[in-house]
Design a protein that fits this description.
- The protein is mainly alpha-helical and 99 residues long.
- The chain has one domain.
- Helix content is 45%, strand content 10%.
- The protein contains 3 helices and 2 strands.
- A two-stranded parallel sheet has the order 1-2.
- Strand 1, helix 2 and strand 2 form a beta-alpha-beta unit.
- The chain is globular, with a radius of gyration of 14 Å.
- The N and C termini lie far apart (30 Å).
- It binds FE2/S2 (inorganic) cluster.
Length: 99
């Protein structure tokens, strides 16, 4: 619904469940329907990236970008870039999330 609703646990769960990368796309700053959801997401994104690095997960595996509903070309480009990034990195090492 809004990037501000994305809890860090959701992202960690995605990686633990086998995702090789996570792409978060939100409304442009200033355009969030809930006013500040994307700013909240941005703060969490920076913190979570640092945590993921501690787990040995490359920071490129988590990406945040802003794309409006009217930016189909940008959406395609961002998704394709993320796919290429993850392909270059290869599969996430299973031992990254040993509990
Ligand atoms: S509605 Fe909050 S980021 Fe889009």
């Amino acid at each position: 619904m809004c990037t501000g609703r994305i809890e860090p646990e959701f992202i960690i769960k995605a990686f633990k469940s086998g995702a090789d990368g996570v792409l978060i796309l939100g409304c442009h700053p200033g355009d969030c329907h809930y006013k500040e959801g994307n700013y909240k997401a941005l703060r969490r994104f920076h913190l979570l990236r640092k945590v993921l690095i501690q787990f040995g997960i490359e920071e490129e595996r988590l990406k945040l970008d802003w794309v409006s509903a009217s930016e189909a070309d940008k959406f395609v480009n961002v998704v394709n870039e993320m796919v290429e990034t993850v392909k270059k990195l290869g599969p996430l090492k299973k031992e990254s999330f040993v509990a």
